[in-house]
Amino acid sequence: MSWTKRQLITQAFEEIGLAAYVFDLTPEQLNSALRRMDAMVASWNSNGVRIGYPLPTSPEDSDLDQDSNAPDFAIEAICLGLACRLAPGFGKTISPQTQAFADMAYSNMLNQTAQPTPERQMPITMPRGQGTKPWRNFNNPFVAPPDKPVLAGSDNEIQFE
Predict the structure, then answer these.
(1) Given CB 3.0 to 4.6 Å as the disulfide criterion, which of 6, 62, 97, 126 pairs with 56?
(2) pLDDT tens across 53-112, in order?
(3) Residue 50, domain member (yes or no)
């Protein structure tokens, strides 16, 4: 079971020094923090960083006690990122260490969610380029076809020949 959204928000408030006052926070403040967290993760999602967080269709559909479904490597990035976004609204200043940890946690999360760029074979209509001398490739100005192509069938199974 992953962290709930309320636990993430409480952790963010603890980071900005409002943990002792968590019971003094009004439901409106908690819901405001929830909307900010949803917006932050939605912006990550739009940039291709998908961590499994359930994004609501509208701000009213989000629930504080819902599971965040965030993996362990994303918890710190969510908490510290949210703390950096909440602090100015409460008149708090983020310490340089917290900002550095937030940046590092976000970078670590990006490393965990990065998708490798698939390799491609250049088409045979691609020119070799100006540095290619005609005597090196038998006057063929185009890229040679692969010696052993990789074929993918209709069932997406890769066949090596």
Answers:
(1) 62
(2) 999 988 888 899 999 999 999 999 999 999 999 999 988 999 999 999 999 999 999 999
(3) yes
CA distance 63 to 31: 9
143 located within any domain: no
CB 17 within 8 A of CB 5: no
State the total domains in the chain. Answer: 1
Q: Which residues contact 102 (CB under 8 A, 6 or more apart)?
A: 77, 80, 81, 83, 84, 94
Within a domain: 57: yes
Give the CATH number of the domain where residue 102 resides: 1.10.3230.20
Q: What is the pTM of this model?
A: 0.71
Q: Is residue 147 part of a domain?
A: no
Q: CB neighbours of 74 closer than 8 A, spacing ≥ 6?
A: 51, 53, 109, 112
101: tokens are: 């940890």
Report residue 26 as tokens.
Answer: 């009004």
Domain that holds residue 71: 5-113
